[in-house]
Specification:
heterodimer, A: about 120 residues, mainly beta, four-stranded antiparallel beta sheet, B: seven-stranded mixed beta sheet, about 50% strand, globular
């Protein structure tokens, strides 16, 4: 069975500092993808970054990077130079490449950016 | 492009009533999904449709039915609503391909069952 665990219900970070949001996963699929989504208070889900299980390098998208450690089954999101607009819920998600492209989500981490 | 649209945005039902949540996408995506979001539980997959003409159960299908009407539309039906189905419902779509198969989400439907 697939499982995503986000152990930090809430995180605080000072504006302009970096923050790491943790995500661990479990799967028996040999090939899978890991995603991070942002959900601001307005409620929409916004895709941030993707990491494939066979990608050699860690994914980066602007201020977002994914610290992928396959052996530890972790896929932490790093946000550099935090901005007030980064305050939101962040969800880690995983999709195995078998089984019809189902995606499962973690419970989320609420990030608060302080001025 | 409107992306993924959902109707209605808000709904209040009484226990035992039925309703259908509508979802449409204009991105020519193959796969569509229905999730529910409850506080502290993230998103849980109710049903999905990997391609037109197919539907499969997700993690929490009980109490729901779905119809993939055509490639664009995927509806979710509650036959006899229960208070436990009070939640925010999201529809999503994706191309359905290996690799970065990003899901695009609708704005959500906030459902309250009294």
């Amino acid at each position: 069975a697939q499982k995503i665990t986000q152990t930090q219900p809430g995180m605080f970070v000072q504006e302009k500092e970096a923050v790491t949001l943790d995500c661990t996963y479990d799967t028996s699929d040999p090939s899978y993808g890991l995603f991070w989504y942002k959900q601001p208070s307005s409620g929409e889900m916004i895709f941030l970054i993707y990491q494939g299980s066979y990608d050699q390098q860690n994914a980066t998208e602007g201020r977002y990077s994914l610290n992928f450690q396959k052996a530890r089954k972790s896929a932490n999101l790093v946000i550099s130079a935090s901005q007030l607009g980064d305050s939101a819920m962040y969800f880690c998600a995983m999709r195995g490449n078998t089984g019809g492209f189902k995606t499962i989500f973690g419970a989320g981490t609420r990030l608060f950016v302080k001025a | 492009n409107a992306g993924v649209t959902q109707t209605p945005k808000f709904q209040v039902l009484k226990t035992g009533q039925s309703m259908t949540l509508q979802c449409a996408q204009d991105m020519n995506h193959n796969s569509m999904y229905w999730y529910r979001q409850d506080p502290g539980m993230g998103l849980r997959l109710i049903y999905y449709s990997a391609s037109e003409g197919t539907t499969d159960k997700g993690e929490v299908p009980n109490g729901y039915n779905v119809s993939r009407l055509n490639k664009r539309e995927f509806s979710l039906r509650l036959e006899s609503a229960a208070p436990s189905q009070t939640s925010v419902y999201f529809c999503a779509s994706s191309e359905a391909r290996r690799g970065p198969d990003t899901q695009y989400f609708g704005p959500g439907t906030r459902l309250t069952v009294l």
